[in-house]
Amino acid sequence: MITRPGESNELEVRALSAGAELMCLAARTAPKARGADNVCAAVVTGPEKAQLAAQMRAIAETENAPFFARDAANVEAAPVVVVLGTRLQRMNLPACGLCGFADCDQNAAAGAQCIFPAHDLGIAIGSAVAVAAAHHADNRVMFSVGVAALRLNLLGDDVRLAFGVPLSATGKSPFFDRK
User: Fold this and answer.
1) At what angle do helices 46-62 and 143-151 cross, to 10 degrees?
2) Which of 152, 141, 148, 146 shows the shortest CA–CA distance to 63?
3) H helices within the chain, ranges in order?
4) Is the pLDDT of residue 55 over 80?
5) Which of 45, 73, 105, 115 is the most exposed place for a label (fewest CB within 10 A)?
6) Containing domain of residue 71, as a range?
7) Structural domain count of the chain
8) Of 98, 155, 125, nearest to 32 (Cα)?
9) Is residue 12 part of a domain?
10) Is 152 or 3 the better-scoring residue by pLDDT?
């Protein structure tokens, strides 16, 4: 049997799936504040990916946010989507104040969030997309995918911040020159 890229997408889908797993590994092992393992990852394909795109289209309608529908088309066209998120936990670091409050107690009293979980997620996303780039997989970080994933509870009840990264392997990246 001879398999050639582009003749069927079987080869590309297998490669993207393997790359998605490596992206999750990179996100998992990325540096984190105090070593707190709050970053979560999932590879979304098949019916769950269709549900994700449908949720994005619903958000486009209910929130009057057309870019969610545009991004949903990218998710539908991508064989694989990686979703990365984090639990929001205060790090209780002394002499920090990066959130704008004197300490974590004041932050909590104001109902604010610690900056470190979002910071850690950003590093994890950077690590993950570096893996995608190293494997020549077209990708784009999308907050819209994360919003839909949170509404569908794809990463669990305790995850409150997420982004998604659809992956593609075609002759031209579908993630640019979008309308």
Assistant:
1) 100
2) 148
3) 10-29, 46-62, 66-77, 104-109, 115-134, 143-151
4) yes
5) 105
6) 38-168
7) 1
8) 125
9) no
10) 152
H or E, element range at 18: helix 10-29
How many Å apart are CA 13 and CA 43, to the nearest integer? Answer: 13
Give the pair of three-digit tokens for residue 41. 């990852």
Q: Please tell me the pTM assigned to this model.
A: 0.93
Is 42 domain-assigned? yes
Residue 127 belongs to domain with CATH number: 3.40.109.10
Question: Could you tell me how far CA 7 lies from the centroid of its own chain?
Answer: 29
Query: What is the DSSP-derived secondary structure letter of residue 92?
Result: -
Look up residue 97 and give its two tokens. 């104040």
- Measured between alpha carbons, how far is 96 from 100 in angstroms, rounded to an integer? 9
Give DSSP secondary structure letters for 38-58.
-EEEEEE-HHHHHHHHHHHHH
d(CA 154, CA 52): 9
3-state secondary structure at position 114:
coil
Q: How far apart are the C-alpha atoms of 120 and 97, rounded to whole Å?
A: 17
Q: What is the mean pLDDT of residues 59-81?
A: 98
- Residue in the block written with tokens 């996100």: 27
Please state, in angstroms and rounded to a whole number, the distance separating the CA atoms of residues 150 and 87: 11
Q: Report the 10 Å Cβ neighbour count for 36.
A: 15
